[in-house]
Amino acid sequence: MTSKFGINISFLILSLVLYSCASTHTYNFLVTNRECNCTEYSITDKKHGITYTFTASYSLEDEMLTTITLTVRNSSSKVLSFDQARVKVSSKQFPYRYNNKFVPFSAIELKPGETRAIMLVGRAEITARPGWHRIAGEEMTVTIRGVRLGNDDLSLEELHFVPVNPKLGSD
C-alpha cells in the first residue's frame, strides 16, 4: 500500500514496530555481596568443586522485567541436582508474582564436568508512574536452598542486588 506521497505504508508500519521493539533498553543489577559491587559475581565451593556465577538485568517499560542468570559449573565427580532445590526472590519495590516465596527449580541435573545456565525471569506490574522512581529504593535478595551433590546438601549464601539507575548517570 502506498500513500499519496509515495511512501510504502506497510514498510513504515513494520519499521515503527521494529523500532519500538529495539528501543527497549536493558540495564544491569549490581551484586553487593562481600565487598563486591559488580555486575557478575562468582562463588566457588572449593570443597565440592562447584562454581556459581550470577548476573542480573532488567528492563523498565510498561512492566519491570527482571532476568537473573545463574551459571553453574560442576567440576566434581558427582551429579549436581536441583531436583529438590528452591529459590526465593525478594524485592523491596516490585510486586513479583512469587515475591518472597520459595518456588522449585525445574528438574535439573549437571553431570561431572558440565556447565549450565539457568535463567530466572520475573515480571511485575508498574502501578506508579514514572517507574524509575521505584528503582531508587530497590534491593533484590536471592536465596537458593536444597541443591544436592550426590547425597550431600550444599549451602548457598543469599545474594543482594541493586539496580543501576540510568537516570542517575551511574553504571
Written account of the structure:
It is a single chain. This protein has two helices and 13 strands, in the order αβββββββββαββββ. The longest helix has 14 residues, at 9-22. With 171 residues, the protein is mainly beta. Strands 1, 2, 3, 4, 6, 7, 9, 10 and 13 form a nine-stranded antiparallel beta sheet that branches. The protein has a four-stranded antiparallel beta sheet with strand order 8-5-11-12, with no helix packed on it.
| Relative helix content | 10-25%
Overall geometric form: elongated
Report the end-to-end length measured between terminal Cα atoms: 45 Å
Query: What is the count of helical runs?
Result: 2
| Helix/strand structural class | mainly beta
Mean pLDDT across all amino acids: 83
Total count of strands: 13
Strand content: 35-45%
Question: SSE order in H/E notation?
Answer: HEEEEEEEEEHEEEE
Radius of gyration, whole Å: 20 Å
Largest sheet features: 9 strands, antiparallel
Mind sketching the topology for me?
Layout lengths: L8 H14 L4 E5 L9 E5 L4 E11 L2 E12 L5 E2 L4 E6 L10 E3 L4 E2 L4 E11 L6 H4 L4 E6 L2 E2 L2 E2 L5 E5 L8
Antiparallel strand pairs: 1-3, 1-13, 2-3, 3-4, 4-9, 5-8, 5-11, 6-7, 6-10, 10-13, 11-12
In short:
It is built from two helices and 13 strands. By secondary structure, the protein is mainly β. It is elongated and about 50 Å long.
Which short descriptors sum up this protein?
single chain, 171 residues, mainly beta, nine-stranded antiparallel β-sheet, four-stranded antiparallel β-sheet, 2 helices, 13 strands, 11% helix, elongated, disordered N terminus
